[in-house]
Design a protein that fits this description.
187 residues, alpha+beta, Aminopeptidase, eight-stranded mixed β-sheet, 35% helix, globular
């Protein structure tokens, strides 16, 4: 369990399956910003229990984001290329009532720290698209560097968008995190 600025990251518990399924499927506006150019189909409850919910229960590569005692999203990581130790982080705030509150930032600070603490890597990446300005602002607020902008490679609803790649190195994160936590203690 990890805490930062009122946000908690934690594993799911078995009793939460139906409530989390409802959270993810009831208001799917989040899917319009989470790589909507990739095919998405609402999972069945059984499909959710067998895949995403198992990852949330194990807590190795995916945790719930909880705010004010309520699950509102999830953080995750995945290997872009495990043999070269290229890892990417991800985040989704499912409940749109919690957008634009800085929860993504508050969840990614402990999540990126956790990734560096548990994985033998030198960089954490985050890939988004130009159609998701909130995620771009969050990555920049975290101190991540925009490492690539691949122009007009994401086609969605008749328009082209850019793929935007951010990253932070371990030594950069150590400096950033010291500054963040010292500011947090002063607040």
């Amino acid at each position: 369990m990890y805490h930062f600025q009122g946000v908690t990251l934690r594993r799911a518990v078995p009793e939460e399956a139906k409530a989390l399924y409802k959270l993810i499927t009831e208001d799917e506006r989040w899917a319009q910003f989470n790589g909507p150019y990739f095919p998405y189909q609402t999972p069945t409850l059984e499909g959710f229990r067998n895949h995403t919910f198992q990852r949330l229960l194990k807590g190795k590569d995916m945790l719930l984001i909880e705010f004010e005692g309520k699950p509102v999203g999830s953080v995750s990581w995945y290997w872009e290329c495990e043999s070269t130790r290229w890892l990417e982080a991800g985040i989704v705030i499912y409940d749109s009532n919690y957008w634009d509150r800085g929860l993504g930032f508050s969840a990614l600070v402990p999540w990126i720290s956790h990734i560096f603490d548990t994985q033998d890597i030198e960089r954490v990446g985050l890939t988004t698209w130009s159609g998701n300005p909130r995620m771009m602002r969050c990555a920049e607020k975290l101190g991540m560097q925009q490492e690539a902008r691949i122009r007009k490679v994401r086609y969605y609803q008749g328009e082209y968008y850019d793929s935007v790649k951010y990253g932070v190195l371990r030594e950069e994160w150590q400096t950033l995190i010291q500054q963040l936590y010292s500011q947090e203690q002063l607040a």
